[in-house]
Amino acid sequence: MKIAVVKEIREGERRVALVPESCAKLAKAGFTVAVEGGAGNGAFFPDDAFREAGAGIGSDPAELLSGADLVLKVQPPMFNRIVGRHEAYMMRPGAVLVGQLVPARHPDAVVQLAGRGITAFATDRIPRITRAQPMDTLSSMASIAGYKAVLIAANLLPRYFPMLSTAAGTILPAKVFVIGAGVAGLQAVATARRLGAVVEATDTRSAVREQVLSLGARFVGVETGESAEDAGGYARELSPEFYRKQAELIAGRCAASDVVITTALIGGVKAPRLVTAEMVRGMKPGTVIVDVAAEGGGNCELTRPGETVVEGGVTICGDDNLPSTLPWHASTLFSRNLTAFVLAFWKDGRFRVDPADEIQRAALVTHEGKEATG
Amino acid sequence: MKIAVVKEIREGERRVALVPESCAKLAKAGFTVAVEGGAGNGAFFPDDAFREAGAGIGSDPAELLSGADLVLKVQPPMFNRIVGRHEAYMMRPGAVLVGQLVPARHPDAVVQLAGRGITAFATDRIPRITRAQPMDTLSSMASIAGYKAVLIAANLLPRYFPMLSTAAGTILPAKVFVIGAGVAGLQAVATARRLGAVVEATDTRSAVREQVLSLGARFVGVETGESAEDAGGYARELSPEFYRKQAELIAGRCAASDVVITTALIGGVKAPRLVTAEMVRGMKPGTVIVDVAAEGGGNCELTRPGETVVEGGVTICGDDNLPSTLPWHASTLFSRNLTAFVLAFWKDGRFRVDPADEIQRAALVTHEGKEATG
Amino acid sequence: MSPELEQGLYVFVLATFVGFEVIRRVSPLLHTPLMSLTNAISAIAVVGSIVVAGEQKTTLSTVLGTVAVACSMINIVGGYLITYRMLRMFRKSDRGKP
Amino acid sequence: MSPELEQGLYVFVLATFVGFEVIRRVSPLLHTPLMSLTNAISAIAVVGSIVVAGEQKTTLSTVLGTVAVACSMINIVGGYLITYRMLRMFRKSDRGKP
Amino acid sequence: MIERAIPLIYLGAAASFVLALKWLSSVPTARRGVIVGIAGMALAVGGTLLRPEIVSYKWIAAAFVAGTVIGVPMAMMPMTAVPQRTALSHAFGALAAALVGTAEFYLQAPRIDRFTMGALALEVLLGFLTFTASLMAFGKLQEILPTRPITYRNQNVVNLAVLGVAAGSGAYLVARPEAAWLFPVLAVLSLLFGVMLIVPIGGADMPTVISLLNSYAGLAAAAMGFVLDNKLLIIAGALDGSSGLILSVIMCRAMNRSFTNVLFGAFGQVQEGAGTAGEQRTVRSATAGEAAAILQAASRVIVVPGYGMAVAQAQHKVRELFDALTKAEIDVRFAIHPVAGRMPGHMNVLLAEADIPYDRLVEMEDVNSEFPQADVALVLGANDVTNPAARHDRSSPIYGMPILDVDRARTVLVVKRSMSPGFAGIENELYHLDRTLMVFGDAKAVVGNIVRELAGGGGN
Amino acid sequence: MIERAIPLIYLGAAASFVLALKWLSSVPTARRGVIVGIAGMALAVGGTLLRPEIVSYKWIAAAFVAGTVIGVPMAMMPMTAVPQRTALSHAFGALAAALVGTAEFYLQAPRIDRFTMGALALEVLLGFLTFTASLMAFGKLQEILPTRPITYRNQNVVNLAVLGVAAGSGAYLVARPEAAWLFPVLAVLSLLFGVMLIVPIGGADMPTVISLLNSYAGLAAAAMGFVLDNKLLIIAGALDGSSGLILSVIMCRAMNRSFTNVLFGAFGQVQEGAGTAGEQRTVRSATAGEAAAILQAASRVIVVPGYGMAVAQAQHKVRELFDALTKAEIDVRFAIHPVAGRMPGHMNVLLAEADIPYDRLVEMEDVNSEFPQADVALVLGANDVTNPAARHDRSSPIYGMPILDVDRARTVLVVKRSMSPGFAGIENELYHLDRTLMVFGDAKAVVGNIVRELAGGGGN
Ligand SMILES: NC(=O)c1ccc[n+]([C@@H]2O[C@H](COP(=O)([O-])OP(=O)(O)OC[C@H]3O[C@@H](n4cnc5c(N)ncnc54)[C@H](OP(=O)(O)O)[C@@H]3O)[C@@H](O)[C@H]2O)c1
Ligand SMILES: NC(=O)c1ccc[n+]([C@@H]2O[C@H](COP(=O)([O-])OP(=O)(O)OC[C@H]3O[C@@H](n4cnc5c(N)ncnc54)[C@H](OP(=O)(O)O)[C@@H]3O)[C@@H](O)[C@H]2O)c1
Ligand SMILES: NC(=O)c1ccc[n+]([C@@H]2O[C@H](COP(=O)([O-])OP(=O)(O)OC[C@H]3O[C@@H](n4cnc5c(N)ncnc54)[C@H](O)[C@@H]3O)[C@@H](O)[C@H]2O)c1
Ligand SMILES: NC(=O)c1ccc[n+]([C@@H]2O[C@H](COP(=O)([O-])OP(=O)(O)OC[C@H]3O[C@@H](n4cnc5c(N)ncnc54)[C@H](O)[C@@H]3O)[C@@H](O)[C@H]2O)c1
Fold first, then answer.
1. What is the CATH number of the domain that holds F336?
2. In what order do the strands lie in the sheet with B288-291?
């Protein structure tokens, strides 16, 4: 079975779907792996490393994609301007595509894939069950996003993070407020605590309280009778009454904080508006907001996805591809996740598409020309 | 006595020599303080805050400088393109200037100041004695530089800093190598350790070994019989034999590290060349060098002061004004240092120039038209 | 060896052991109250004093005995009272803490 | 109350105290050896047994006494030996560590 | 002449016993304790042999030889058989006391004063009951007898009746020593009661029971002391009685069992002991003290932290534990499961905060092959990541997840607050294994207690 | 009839004393200890009053009243005067024993057996010497007498001679009780020896000496017990004797003094006690145990970390100390000097690593006004930043630097390895203050030991 990996074409994307380490593993399992030349450059994996790992190096993405039974990607397929064709159309019908497709955000790509008869798996839809964790790209990428969000904030903040007693007086620790304490939020909490900040976090799901405390940070929350969790463990939408109370809480905490990190998503995809322009105006000059949910539209009203803007002394970072700023580890983890997924269904020399399997059923986006219903 | 503070004109300089808190303190002591409008903007101190602290706001730097008995600055005086005059020439003869002048790096400024008959104190020449620590701008700025150097490195590095065990495999901690463990180097060691990296440091002075260990990091050093310390506690130049052995050590450690932070200075001013182009070639792609000594010429051969360059996969950050990237705290500390200096010699309503005093003697750069001999 | 002596010795040795064992790991905090308490216990001589004073065999013995009883009594009353006061202080300072 | 009983009781009460105090804080590591040791000490019945066996007052008493001495002896020899062996093990495992 | 020294010799023996117990209760002085104990016994025996009443040494010598010949091989039983051996040895000791009592009775009765008769009755009662009870305990431990508790209806009534009649006979004898025919009744009933006492107690409780029987044997010896007016016997007996009692209390506490439950086990357990006990899934729990002892005796320890350690914020205590064990030259490593906690690297964050050296962390693949060599796997608030069901139970939601094979360590100590499940919401069969001991409680508190035990438990 | 119960009453009294001591040796049970102690004494007195030998209660009642009238006000002395009070109370107790001995002698002599006479001589010797020695101790503590040790050449020879003659008289009396004239000699020499014993001991050692005298008084009572064949006296006396002895050993250890040095202080101190002691700059050092006791007794502690804490990497141990003290409801704060350590924020990095809550750190300006209210300032490897020379010594290189005013705390504990200076290379006069105790050693080790003491020293 042939696997193809092409250079990611989304602007600013530095990750690669497979790293040499995984190529070697897949080759050993019996796959033939081909990688586009320079695909790993952004993440500091030179072509030579892929060669050493037993992968072939191709130069033409169209050729690579059309010849592959299995295509591994980071970003959903998109129109390749250089080649002048859409990636989905370079693949042959019946081929399998695995990647973080986020179908809810890329309905166009889903249509193209279905139309082309490609069997596509979205790793972001893999259920959050214990057994599937090694394949869970959302977790590994979110963890990086949370970590980087804090580093970016620390770099943009005109203040120190830690407390320091110096001959020129005491420096008080920065106050960091994390909204949404899923994987990214928790990692942000942990990283900010490492740097010595005073950290508070809020979330709608009740289990999170204990998790935040377990990292030594403070939890602030709205008392609610509603269950904030859907069946998949994701947050669900709540009553207007709840959002009103929450807005009050957030406005207060934001005004008192030096750094605000927002990571809230609903259903894993949609970013609720939690920090309004009004609230930003109430914040101290010099405050930094890092909106990790930028790709989902942003939790802050003033976030411009992909850009860093300053509004009334408040810096708002809307980087919409944080994992890509840590390309070496992001690629490595992503690649391991995909490899785990592929090898889990690799039996008798074949990758088996099996919609009866719990994981595959959830992750399947298109199959045999139709959109899968999940 | 009138104090004037103008907006710093060096490109990229975001600090201000006095912050409102210090203005209030000086005003209370009997000074009249005037600040140029917008001088604090870069550091997020709005004019209003200065006004509230009792400072007057002026708009013309020439007017402010010429009317002042005491001028406080961050950077040495330089040619003001907008006004079209050199700052030294805007001051009146006999006035006192206090700032981090670094005379060894700015001989031109010294000449101008002497020519203009200005009494200038360089805070960077204040002796490193216990009593003078509250005035020691070198320490407070170096501390910021060390802290920021690590944050910048962590941001540029394509890898995680901390060790993490995740479902997609274990992430090994980044290896950080700190060259020169003075104030900046030690702060870099501490910050990198906070972020979970494995840290090694080297220095020529023998007392540093214990200090590095006292931060929980590893010390690597060249065994030497030579005393590496001059009378002032600064590092002095050593024998070629020593530098040969040291180069070997550094080359080895650099090749094994993910991040190299260089902070070595001789006599507090000159940066020795410690990381050669050859050594950079021996480093792994993706490695990051942050050259904190860039302003002194850089410890790395490939450093371009003020720029960040990538050479053979190695990113070399040569930011030559790191403290300015943390403007709020940098200004606050700087301002407190200057205030401590001024108030220490403020007696009976007058700032007393007293070359007999140990601190003033050391810090005096020009006085009564002559260069001071120190 | 007289049986009296034998019996006495057994009791003495055992009681010595008990004393050692009981005090061996006392908290330094309690050194002073303990001293006062042992002080009070050493007033056990009152037992002998009472007998001597009460037997009224000779004037000398009665006088000596009476003085001895008084002395012991000072010891008893003072020892226990002060120990008790000291311990009460512990309590108070405990509660007084912020 | 007979003086015998009185004396006996003093000794008994004190010895009981000593036993309690001494064992009270023993490390759990030593529970088993301690049990063996107290086991061996309980063979003190040998003192009575020897007298009964040695007096040879009646055949019954001599026989019973002799059996009792043998039984006690098993207890003594076994108890001490095993305690000793156990403690030696402690040592070894200590030394065997990396 | 020499016999005038006997009281002094006895005094020395008594003091030696006290010292022996004292020294044996702390590790560094334990050996000294044994030696002084032996010396004490030698003094006691030697002193007795000097007594003028003794007219012939023939039988005594024979008995000495016989006792030694039987005693030495018994002491050479393998270490695992120590409890059995102790039980058996007890039986002999108690029998000795009972036989002496019997001999004395027939020597003195009916010219026997009340006080002596009372002590004598007590001696015989305790002696005989301890004899048979010890034999029963031996049988259960050696698995000659069925180890499971045997219970029947009204067991407690029957037992109490037997004891009551025995005690009654004793009391009657005190009042009228001439009723010598009652003596055999007393003896037989005592023997019977000893058997009945042990029947309803399960094998697992035997060590505690033995320690308690030890205490009874001591009391029998003390009673003998009253009969013979011998202070040495009284002291040694009392020492034995009290230390045996307190030791069994301590042991109960260490096993997290109520002492009364064991002490009156015969009566209390009737209800629960009946039926299926043994077939049920049992859980063995331990105290922090016992956990400390187990860790102290280990050479290699692997710590498995989980979400519970994070919740308890126990990382600094874990650091203390690490320090304490490392100082005792015990090799401690940390095995971090990839998904332990609630976010990637959750455990790393905490362990780094506590400054656990990186080289002490081992990856899952490497550590799994090391568990079989580990003396102790210490699981701190981890659950799902140690669940063996992942290896074999195809129906389990975590089937197929690689887990940490803690169940392959020699002993598994699990610290958690209750039997509740972890994130995946499933039961963990690890907790029912024979080699597993649960230490219930908040991880921070438990680890803190273990550290304290390790510091203080050394004995001094 | 009722007097048959006296032995039982006495037994109860003896048991009460044992329990009293036992309970008093741990904080939570201490009050119970006093109460049972009082009960024991009541039993003893009550039991004695029942004795048939007593023919008249008149004098006894009068003596009771007198004793109470004097005793109560004595017990109301201020707490700071406790040592004096104890000494005085001792004097009375010892006197009672000596007087009873005297009375017995004149009642029985010369028809007195050797054993009784021996015990009696011991009783009188110990009683009288303790009497005068206690009075002397009282005088020194109350500063009626000069507190400094008074020594002269050959002091030890003279003292030993006096004791020797006293003991010799006693021995002669044992051999020939009819030599009644020797009795006053014995009494006077004992009184004299008591004085001579205390003369060469300094005021600072008095508490230990008192505890030791306590032990002597106990032994006197025990001797009385042998004379009167009274077990209660023997037990109470022996308890007192042994507990007093061990207590003084413990106190010596806590003060880092050798016990023999104090016990034979009279003879040992001659050489060193002489001369200039007091004028020299002295340094008082303490052990970790004493430091723990001082901390335990405090309500407010301010910890001052310095470079030494960093060098020792003691931050995790400091965290443990913080936990332990906080748990004991002691208020602990950290005062970080701006230039402590070797880089800005050096201490913060370490304390953050150990997760000391930020709100426990106080700034220099705020904390300096709090030192006078602090019971203990614990200086951990800080030196220059605590040097009072900065405040007043214009010639000092650190003159004018603001420092942490630790010298204003009630007690200053300084943990460092030696007397070597810090970064500035100058001596620190703080170390020579009266309120300062140096705890020498590596900061990590010392703090670790203190924590251990705090955990174990609680008594149970
Ligand atoms: N790592 C990730 O990224 C991630 C993210 C989400 C979910 N998960 C899931 O989380 C689980 C992680 O496994 P795990 O073994 O670490 O945790 P776990 O299976 O959730 O078990 C944690 C155990 O800790 C105990 N506990 C809780 N608080 C405690 C306290 N204060 N003191 C002592 N014990 C305490 C609980 O038992 P008691 O209540 O009886 O004390 C519980 O059984 C896996 O199922 C994994 O899939 C992981
Ligand atoms: N903060 C800064 O930025 C900075 C930078 C450079 C210099 N300085 C200077 O450094 C000094 C700081 O004052 P400081 O009070 O923190 O330190 P210090 O005055 O240097 O005193 C540190 C003390 O710690 C003791 N010590 C060293 N290792 C120890 C160990 N393992 N365990 C226990 N004690 C140990 C040493 O005494 P023993 O040897 O007897 O143990 C020493 O006296 C000031 O003079 C300051 O001016 C500060
Ligand atoms: N079983 C596993 O192995 C595993 C692995 C990783 C994650 N998970 C679980 O998956 C779930 C989702 O995690 P995720 O990181 O992908 O979440 P996510 O990225 O979908 O959302 C981020 C966080 O935002 C929160 N949020 C949503 N609306 C909010 C609002 N209005 N205000 C504040 N917070 C709001 C959510 O509750 C969530 O915690 C969690 O339950 C997590 O524990 C499970
Ligand atoms: N007394 C005080 O209060 C006080 C305050 C701050 C600093 N100081 C002291 O001032 C001195 C200078 O500190 P700084 O931070 O300004 O130093 P710096 O900035 O002048 O130099 C940085 C470090 O580079 C090192 N270095 C020089 N050549 C090197 C080489 N070839 N290889 C490796 N390392 C080399 C130096 O030893 C120094 O540690 C130190 O002794 C410091 O402890 C004292």
1. 3.40.50.1220
2. B218-219, B198-202, B175-179, B259-262, B288-291, B314-317, B308-311
**D23 or E95: which leads in pLDDT:** E95
pLDDT, tens digit (0-9, with 9 covering 90-100), for F22-59: 888 777 788 888 889 999 999 998 888 888 888 888 88
Contact B166 E338 (CB under 8 A): yes
Q: What amino acid positions of F are annotated as catalytic residues?
A: 384
CB contact set of F65 (below 8 Å; sequence gap of 6+): none
Boundaries of domain holding F317: 282-454
Instruction: Indicate the residue type of E28.
Output: P
The tokens of D93 are what?
A: 């495992």
- The verdict on pTM exceeding 0.80 is no
- Which chain F residues are Cβ-neighbours of A216 within 8 angstroms? 355
- Angle, helices A137-156 vs A183-194, to 10°: value is 40
User: Do A169 and B143 lie within an 8 Å CB cutoff?
Assistant: no
Q: Please check whether residues F72 and F151 belong to one and the same domain.
A: no
Domains in chain A, ordered, with CATH? Answer: 2-125+326-365 (3.40.50.720), 146-325 (3.40.50.720)
- Residue F331 shares a structural domain with residue F404: yes
Distances (CA, A) of F163 to E103, F121, F124, F126, F181: 55, 13, 13, 11, 18
- The reported pLDDT for the residue numbered F11 is 86
Q: Which of A140, A194, A215 is closest, CB to CB, to E344? A: A140
- The answer to whether the beta carbons of residues F17 and F239 sit under 8 Å apart is yes
> Phi and psi of B2, rounded to 5°?
-100, 130
- Which of E349, E338, E332 is closest to E382 using CA atoms? E338
End residue of a domain, out of E50, E76, E102: E76
- Distance between E405 CA and the closest CA of chain D, angstroms: 23
Same domain (yes/no): F129, F184: yes
- Give the residue from E26, E52, E76 where a domain finishes: E76
Q: Do chains C and B touch (3 or more CB pairs under 8 A)?
A: no
F281: tokens are 């700059």
Which bin fits B369, alpha (ψ -120 to 50), beta or left (φ > 0)? Answer: left
* Average pLDDT value over all residues in chain A: 93
Residue E420: CB atoms within 10 A of its CB come to 9
- Within this chain, do residues F89 and F32 fall inside the same structural domain, yes or no? no
What is the predicted ipTM? 0.67
B212: Cα within 13 Å, side-chain hemisphere? 28
The label of the residue with tokens 């600064």 reads B234
pLDDT in tens, E437-450: 888 889 999 998 89
CB contact under 8 A, F231 and D10: yes
In this structure, the residue with its CA closest to atom 20 of ligand 4 is B268
Query: Which range is least confidently modeled, C23-32, E425-434, F185-194?
Result: C23-32
- CA–centroid distance, E346 to ligand 3, in Å, is 15
DSSP H helices, chain B, are 20-29, 47-52, 61-66, 87-90, 107-115, 137-156, 183-194, 207-213, 240-256, 277-281, 327-344, 358-363
- Per-residue pLDDT of F156-166, as tens digits, reads 788 888 888 98
Answer yes or no: is F459 within a domain: no
How far apart CA F31 and CA F23 sit, in angstroms, is 8
Nearest residue in chain A measured CA to CA from B172: A329
A203 lines ligand 3 (CB under 6 A): yes
Same domain, F65 and F146: no
Instruction: Tell me if chain E has a CB within 8 Å of the CB of D3.
Output: no
| Same structural domain, F305 and F416 | yes
Q: How many structural domains is chain F composed of?
A: 3
Distance CA B19, CA B24 (A): 9
For residue E11, give how far its alpha carbon lies from the nearest alpha carbon of chain C (Å): 7
Domain co-membership, E72 together with E85: no
Same domain flag for F289 and F430: yes
Structure tokens at C70: 């008084």
